[in-house]
Amino acid sequence: MAKFDPLIAQYGKEMKKNYSFFYSSVRKYDRIVIFRHIKPDYDAQGTQMGLYTFLRDNFPQKEVHFVGDDHVSFTPKIFPKTERLNDEWFNQPFLAIVVDVGDHERIADPRYERAETILKIDHHPCKKEISSHPILDVESAAAAEIMTDLLLKFKGTTLSKEAASYLYIGIVGDSGRFQYSSTSAHTFACASALIKAGIDINQIYLTMYEKKIDDLKVTAYVLNHFQVSPHGVAYYLLPDAIQKELNITSEQGKNNVNLFSNIEGINAWCSITEDPNPKDYCWRISIRSKAKDISGVANRWEGGGHAQASGCKIKSLDQLDDFIQSLDELFL
Q1: CB 3.0-4.6 Å disulfide test: which of 64, 166, 202, 306 passes with 49?
Q2: CATH 3.90.1640.10 domain residues, the chain
């Protein structure tokens, strides 16, 4: 077991109570399903699969599943295809564990509501709580960081190399490779504990960030078409027609957002990608920042997130100038 201060040292008795409730609930239920948010990122899937693997390793007699939508790039390169459970499975009592979701509307599979008990492990601000015993820390860099802390203190269990690898991917993904301001001593302590479990960080980084030659065409397009506002907000647009021309999906459109992370004079940067889904037509925006908290701007534009990494959307390009101005005003 790793010996570093747990989150309960920060939050006191209430968090300690929630940790204990998590452990007792896992031991109690023989049927467990792990949920996470739609359009998953490294943290959502890393946390989900880290917990899934941990439970399968330590409680082989239990029936454990993971659900949600697959990722266009991560599946099956990094994470296995998500399970498909028929509706009848949820008719019997089960434990739902929801990870990396702040708002319940973004949970990928609504059948979590049918669970006898719901647990939640997350690091996002929450508008409506779905669990009676949430393990929530908005200061943590990743949900995988909280999960690592939680699992390393689960008495009588072990953390395998495979489970640790998934959790490390989650921490690296949401901390921006330990570059975002949410990275703390606790983040590094968790990463250190996972490395001690025997993970191969070189292989992990290769798997996460290796690109294909065709990806250079997308990068070239972005570098040739980005714009910068008067106060250092860089952004690029990827209309649906351009996505088809570049042979990418709307979800892949944000992959080049961090091209602008270390450029002098650029304070915040965005990918703005058309999502032509007829049910929710919009332009999806990923926002990053060097120092200023951009989560408030994201909240104003139907989104949210963290101080230096948030997401939101606009309904049409008619709103683009107003959106960029709202970011620009942060740097006056």
Answers
A1: 166
A2: 8-208
Residues 6+ apart with CB under 8 A from 16: 8
Residue at 125: amino acid letter: P
Tell me which H or E stretch contains 310. strand 309-314
| CATH class of this structure's domain 216-331 | alpha beta
Distances (CA, A) of 292 to 134, 149, 231, 303, 331: 28, 28, 13, 17, 8
- Please state which CATH class domain 8-208 belongs to: alpha beta
Domain span(s) for CATH 3.10.310.30 in the chain: 216-331
| Spatial CB neighbours of 185, under 8 Å, sequence gap ≥ 6 | none
The verdict on whether omega for the bond into residue 76 sits within 30 degrees of 0, i.e. cis, is: yes
- Report helix, strand or coil for 274: strand
User: Which ranges of 3-141 would DSSP assign to H, the alpha helix?
Assistant: 8-11, 13-28, 42-58
Could you report the per-residue pLDDT of 80-137, keeping only the tens digit for each? 999 999 999 999 999 999 999 988 989 999 999 999 999 999 999 888 899 999 999 9
